[in-house]
Write a structure and sequence with these properties.
Elements: H1 2-20, H2 43-70, H3 73-96, H4 100-133
């Protein structure tokens, strides 16, 4: 069971790690150097690719959650705490690589990202409560 959970967590972290890896100046967030730009996709193909990738990400999260739900509460909390600690440590290391003016911008970007994340979590909670009332 533990090996399965570790494998699922590792697999779910791979896309994040891949995006963090240096790629010799190529950006993967749209623009001229996006991975699918080389394929000269039509707008319809791009939209369908986005839909497929979004569905794949959602499915991966559902699978991960299904295995997490099977863990005893103590192990689940320990795992989530360890993930949070690891994330905070990486964030600190990344920030320390930056110059002071870059750190300020990095902090602002991080705050915006966290605000969006909190807003999304609040929305998801609202949806769950709404669906329970129906």
């Amino acid at each position: 069971m533990r090996k399965t959970v570790i494998a699922v967590l590792f697999a779910s972290a791979l896309p994040t790690l891949a995006m963090a890896m240096p790629d010799e100046g190529h950006r993967h967030h749209g623009g001229k150097h996006a991975p699918f730009e080389q394929l000269n996709l039509t707008q319809e193909q791009k939209a369908k690719m986005r839909d497929l990738m979004g569905a794949q990400m959602k499915h991966r999260r559902e699978i991960t959650q299904r295995y997490l739900d099977k863990l005893p509460e103590a192990e689940r909390k320990a795992m989530l705490d360890e993930l949070k600690s690891s994330k905070e440590n990486t964030h600190k290391q990344m920030r320390n690589l930056l110059k002071p003016e870059q750190q300020k911008q990095f902090d602002e970007m991080h705050e915006k990202m966290e605000a969006k994340r909190a807003e999304r979590a609040e929305f998801q909670q609202w949806k769950v409560e709404r669906d329970q009332k129906s």
